[in-house]
Amino acid sequence: MTALRLGIAGLGTVGAGVLRTLEQNSAMITARCGRAIQVVAVSARDKNKARNFDIKNLQWVDDPLALAGMPNVDVVVELMGGDSPARQLVETGLRNGKAVITANKALIAGHGMMLTQLAEAKQVVFAFEAAVVGGIPVIKTIREALAANKISEIQGILNGTCNYILTQMRLRQMSFQAALQEAQTRGYAEADPLFDINGTDAAHKLAILAALAFGTQLDLNAVSAEGISGITPDDIIFAEELGFRIKLLSVARHHEYGLEQRVSPCLIPLLSPLASVENEYNAIQIQGDAIGHLMLVGRGAGAEATASAVLADIMDIAAGRHALPFNVAVSALQKCLPPAAEKSRSSFYLRLVVSDQPGVVADIATILRDHKISIESLLQRGRAMAAGVPVVITTHETMASAMQQAAAKIVKLPVVLEPPCVLRIENN
Amino acid sequence: MTALRLGIAGLGTVGAGVLRTLEQNSAMITARCGRAIQVVAVSARDKNKARNFDIKNLQWVDDPLALAGMPNVDVVVELMGGDSPARQLVETGLRNGKAVITANKALIAGHGMMLTQLAEAKQVVFAFEAAVVGGIPVIKTIREALAANKISEIQGILNGTCNYILTQMRLRQMSFQAALQEAQTRGYAEADPLFDINGTDAAHKLAILAALAFGTQLDLNAVSAEGISGITPDDIIFAEELGFRIKLLSVARHHEYGLEQRVSPCLIPLLSPLASVENEYNAIQIQGDAIGHLMLVGRGAGAEATASAVLADIMDIAAGRHALPFNVAVSALQKCLPPAAEKSRSSFYLRLVVSDQPGVVADIATILRDHKISIESLLQRGRAMAAGVPVVITTHETMASAMQQAAAKIVKLPVVLEPPCVLRIENN
Lengths: 428, 428
Known about the structure:
The structure is a homodimer. By secondary structure, the first copy, chain A, is α/β, with parallel strands linked by helices. The first copy, chain A, is 34% helix and 24% strand. In chain A, the strands form 2 sheets. In chain A, strands 7, 8, 9, 10, 11, 12, 13, 14, 15, 16 and 17 form an 11-stranded mixed β-sheet that branches. A 6-stranded parallel β-sheet of chain A has the order 3-2-1-4-5-6, sandwiched between helices. The radius of gyration of chain A is 24 Å and the shape is elongated.
């Protein structure tokens, strides 16, 4: 059988990983596909950049869009990231009837429906396993291995930067800022880490997984996202005392009244499987009606791990295995109904810093009672902190809206010295 | 597109799960496959057995082998288990050019090479995801998602019965026998649990995974298997004190000098991800050169979880996705070289029961020294046990053969009252 010929745009971390792995494992890859996989052309920003692999035998094109038009390219592999020209390349590739592979989560989260419809119209493969948690094969697992399952819930640790920061804050009693710097030094965080730490990156991944798992239209606007910059080392210590660990949790949950899609720092039980997923590791726990719980844990980023996912998509093409990107045609996806905000329920963790004087707890408890919020536990710490003393409250399950309103009132109490930290407790 | 038509042999736990899930999720399954999946005929031991699902609209055949000859059956689904007539059914189905799906691990472990070659010759699909750890999609993951990876190691908790027993022994300080009875009461252990508790069941699964992952001929004789019946509640307590948990671990590891395939109770670090996989749950940790570590955790048995895997195989056929069962043709699999026994190294846990008199430790330490085994820690417990006192020793990494010889000498010391318990410590 003839070789499958690739045109690769982008030779950064992931592109380099793909070229290295293809070269290192070429005999094995050929044997497993029944045909060779051959890179015929590459494009990147700077031809002359020092690279630790050889590109002199590959055709170089300055304009990545040219790859989409080359007759000897079967598969366009978009590894540039960003919006433009990545989007144009993917679109032109599909329009020209080429298979397209991408690792670009923002592109799929923003334009996945349109691009997938284009691929369907052209009857070409469009695949993006690497766009969601790098090496962990969650897309293939949901799409194929769990195809017979009605999925009711996905919970995941989908951002390695945040997980690394929260782990280091806990293990070394570091501040958020210090842990972030450490993550940057180690290459786990970008120079501009905003989209990682504010939950945007995880929201992109969650939106893609939710559309696939629940058969709903991908709708990034239906995902609420909250980051981890408000978490203090004290919160982490209090959570542990209460039997919980704080994780940036991505949750997509099917309710009768809509689809909940949420990225937020949460308290999860210390003994839950996700609690032991630490540092830069990612994990996804899927609940299906037949399979029960299935959890996948692995590296969500990094050159070789992400290359593993890109190459799996490519090898599926080489072996003739095709699947619709969202399991059914885009036209068959249901409208994504965001859940009615007034129906969202949870138990909560509430940490306040208050001035140390009599009656504070009574004031707070009164506000909670007025909002029909029932206290499960209350911890008041000694007088160690100069500026005030922390009070930590956990609640029984309550309306999220009631909790929001109560927090807004509590912050106005003169004895409350800082905005409260309000976190969901995910018990299941 | 026309429906994919199934003939199902075996309506026990798994068969019932397949029929129920197919019925419950039929609209979704049809949408995802682009065609209906239809059961046209079934066979089981007793037509009139009370069942909680309806078979009156299905054609009943008394002889399961007849399914392999029916012109309106596209896929033969073997869910009877056991050797005969399961083997004849699978073989006849393949010979007649039908796709065959089975959940029969003993059949694949024993005859997988022959049956796969037959499927290759007939160019039909032969798949058995459900044969290895039920619902967890480890075969698809290794075969497709990790296809670009050279795999160096698989470690797994592949038997839910043993994992349940060890968990309950720890949590409730039960004896092995009491925990086994509990497992039988709860349906986690067969009436005859021998193949579960002596490691045979896990060895079957490991042999299948190793062949797929390492591209070697499936060779059940190359797998060493040891069960858990020698583990006492004391061993579990000592292990925890030393920072370890005891698990029945299945390990397949690539060495320069051969392929290590071993099922045995091992001490693994309390903080290792596998240590937190408890009760009836199964897990597999795979190490690939590109992906690094990937772990899958889920239910390895049960009606619906196993049905999920059977149906995934069927839906792959319906959607036209094909893969070679062992990723390359059987003729391309390498001969499986068992590792030279004299090269196997490990650190060890050694628990003795000795009579409480001076000089005991010196006698034991001398034997270990004579075999060049270096002691890492030694715990000697008080005088609680009437019959003797336990001595627990952990060693630094040493030759497994040296440990065996030393243990054989130690057991002959007059002060040693019981055969020693010798367990590997898996630190990585």
